[in-house]
Specification:
Blueprint: E1 10-13, H1 18-21, E2 34-37, E3 44-46, E4 53-56, E5 59-62, E6 68-74, H2 76-82, E7 84-86, E8 91-93, E9 102-107, E10 116-118, E11 123-131
């Protein structure tokens, strides 16, 4: 496996309005992800407590590399300020998927509060490309070595800062 810092990803524009709204691009020199636009024909109102809805992003991608994937994450401002989150927490786009990118959105606010309205062209999520490890699995009866933690899970390491060993 070789790692490329700037691999080529082909993007197909499925909604011509992206040419006026802005094609997917990094918004700063150190941005980790590209913003995705809501390619809607009309405003979408999402009431609190209703099921998640799929919003087209107007693009499809071809990564062509099994050691790469894309993730879809919420934009922090929309989640924190408005309560708009992804219906599946985070979306994973496999390297061999070439269909339309869809964003599952959900209004996490309490019932009885204001709905969230998404406007056509609004930037609603972000897509980040990540490296993928594809390990070879080996079935065993016991692990080749024991760790200090072992099978301890769900809070087994505590919730307070660890004491330094000085």
């Amino acid at each position: 496996m070789t790692f490329e810092a700037n691999p080529t990803v082909e993007i197909k524009v499925l909604d011509a309005r992206l040419h006026e709204w802005g094609l997917p691009a990094y918004q700063s020199d150190m941005a980790a992800a590209i913003d995705l636009h809501a390619c809607l024909d009309a405003a979408l109102t999402i009431e609190p407590g209703t099921p998640a809805q799929l919003v087209p992003a107007g693009i499809s991608v071809h990564m062509g590399n099994p050691y790469m994937a894309a993730t879809i994450a919420p934009r922090s401002g929309l989640g924190h300020k408005k309560g708009l989150v992804l219906g599946n927490s985070i979306g994973v786009i496999d390297a061999d998927y070439q269909g339309p990118i869809m964003v599952s959105v959900w209004n996490r606010n309490a019932p009885g509060t204001e709905p969230i309205v998404i406007q056509p062209g609004e930037r609603i999520a972000q897509m980040m490309f990540v490296p993928v490890l594809r390990p070879v699995f080996k079935t065993v009866e016991t692990f080749s070595e024991d760790t200090a933690r072992g099978a301890g899970g769900f809070g087994s390491t505590g919730v307070h800062h660890a004491k330094s060993g000085s």
